[in-house]
Amino acid sequence: MEKKRKIILASRSPRRQALLRQIGFDLEVIESGVDEDGYEKSSPVDHVLVLSRKKAEAVKSKGVRGIIVGADTIVVYNEILLGKPKDKNDAVSMLTLLSGHTHKVYTGFTILDTESDRTLSDYEVTKVTFRNLSHQEILDYVESGSPMDKAGAYGIQDDYGAVFVERIEGCFYNVVGFPLTKFYLAIQKF
Questions:
Q1: pTM for the whole structure
Q2: Helix or strand holding residue 139 (H, E)
Q3: Longest Cα separation, the chain
Q4: Judging by DSSP bridges, how do beta strands 7-9 and 67-77 pair with one another?
Q5: Which of the residues 35, 37, 46, 72 is marked catalytic?
Q6: DSSP 8-state class, residue 115
Q7: DSSP class of residue 83?
Q8: Per-residue pLDDT tens listing for the chain (190 residues)
């Protein structure tokens, strides 16, 4: 794939950075500073699309020029939107809620070209089923610190997080934090 310009990623997520570099993009990372908790939550799709666009626009407002990519990921179980845990107790509550159940992971992304002011937004949904987790497994995982910067308080790519998941339906990379195939196809069109 020919990449004429570098991508500016409006995210501090090391997972998104690694995934985009994995498929050959040259990245500059500029954190958006958007308060994810400050957004009035609506439907999961609206939530991730609005926040991904706000993140891209926030980076643009800093005078950055080029192609900016904003993204947002949430976990949804029984219509409850789970972002990043606020503290360890919140992480334990989230993992207890997800234990033994199927939830959905939504990731929205926005591609914004500052030269033409064109934007393209899309999203991906993946179903994830957790096995039944013991309370001690949850406590050990939370104590590791790993779930604290992840929507739904887990990372499918983590040591423990990898063995919590019984099965997935849909894009694996979406659960990691960025739907690579959908993004790749979108940026080709863009």
A1: 0.91
A2: helix 135-143
A3: 53
A4: parallel
A5: 72
A6: T
A7: -
A8: 444 558 999 988 888 999 999 888 889 999 998 877 666 667 999 999 999 999 999 999 999 999 999 999 999 999 899 988 999 999 999 999 999 999 999 999 999 999 999 999 999 999 999 999 999 999 999 999 999 989 899 999 887 888 999 999 999 999 998 999 999 999 988 8
C-alpha closest to that of 153 among 97, 100, 72: 97
**Tokens 């179980």, located at residue:** 77
Q: How far is CA 78 from the centre of its chain?
A: 19
Task: Single out the residue of 89, 83, 88, 69 nearest to residue 28, CA to CA.
Answer: 69
C-beta of residue 3 within 8 angstroms of C-beta of residue 23? no
Angstrom distance (rounded) from CA 51 to CA 5: 24
Residues 156 and 148: beta-carbon distance below 8 Å: no
CATH number of the domain at 7-189, please?
3.90.950.10
Is 90 a catalytic site residue? Answer: no
